[in-house]
Amino acid sequence: MRYDFLRRALAAAALLASLAAAASAGAAERTVHIGFQKYGTLVLLKGRGTLEEKLKPLGYDVQWAEFPGGPQLLEALNVGAVDFGSTGETPPIFAQAAGAPLVYVAHEPPAPKGEAILVPKDSPIRSVAELKGRKVALNKGSNVHYLLVRALEDAGLAYGDIQPVFLAPADARAAFESGAVDAWVIWDPFQAAAEVTSEAREIRNGEGLVPNHQFYLGTKSFVAENKSAVEALLAAIAETDAWVAANTQAAADTLSPSVGIPADILKVALDRQSYGAKPLDEETARTQQKIADTFHALGLIPAAIKVEDALHHPQP
């Protein structure tokens, strides 16, 4: 009898251990890999830790990866290293043209002041027209690539009238401050940092030229197969947007240690950002299509694309 009792006790213990292990495994059945940059809502969402709270009950944990720009982030998405991330307007165009399996999930309202063409404070250049023949640094395929194209067009110049120098933000800033390039097309918070620390002078921002949307994108497979996680992500983004819009100084103070940028600079950038993520509407999709058509006409992407093919249509 004692043997039977011991056997039943051991069996019960084994069952409890098995259930505990299953519960533990169920608590993190899937890891969501999120790409972020030193700007935008996702880096603030990472800092606040609220996404993990929303995803854990659904059986997900989160891994974050930082990228210097949107093109690099979407390269990671293309090879499956990232499930979800945010970029400006142009990177998804280049990525879709390269065959990346991406879908647009949502976007923030326009923030045209959050990107600009800068020149050194002592530069003789006073207008975009004076960039003719000059070296202009930018991150190829980033949101500012389209700003440069539109600004040149607006000033009566062709893209071929300037010498583009393709550099990631850190290298571009070094080239800009050393005088190796004449101008730098850049986005916040790098834009704000250059304006504050080196007194870089803006000759044109996106106002009247480009909307400068921030897009949230995911792989087609992740978005299709993880509806609850996507809904939780968008809910967390909406909460963070609302908090930052009402507390930009607190957001800057919170974000500063994690990104290594002083809070006063971040406050400038956050004040120029827009808040209120929502699904893509027809006007935004048309704007993206115009960007795609422009880059195809310039020979900067290899084939024409249809942005419509990459739009996410949530199922009820």
UniProtKB/TrEMBL annotation:
GO terms for cellular component: membrane; periplasmic space. CDD domains: PBP2_SsuA. It is found in: Periplasm. It comes from the Bacteria. The keyword Lyase does not apply. Part of a binding-protein-dependent transport system for aliphatic sulfonates. Putative binding protein. This is Putative aliphatic sulfonates-binding protein. It comes from Aureimonas endophytica.
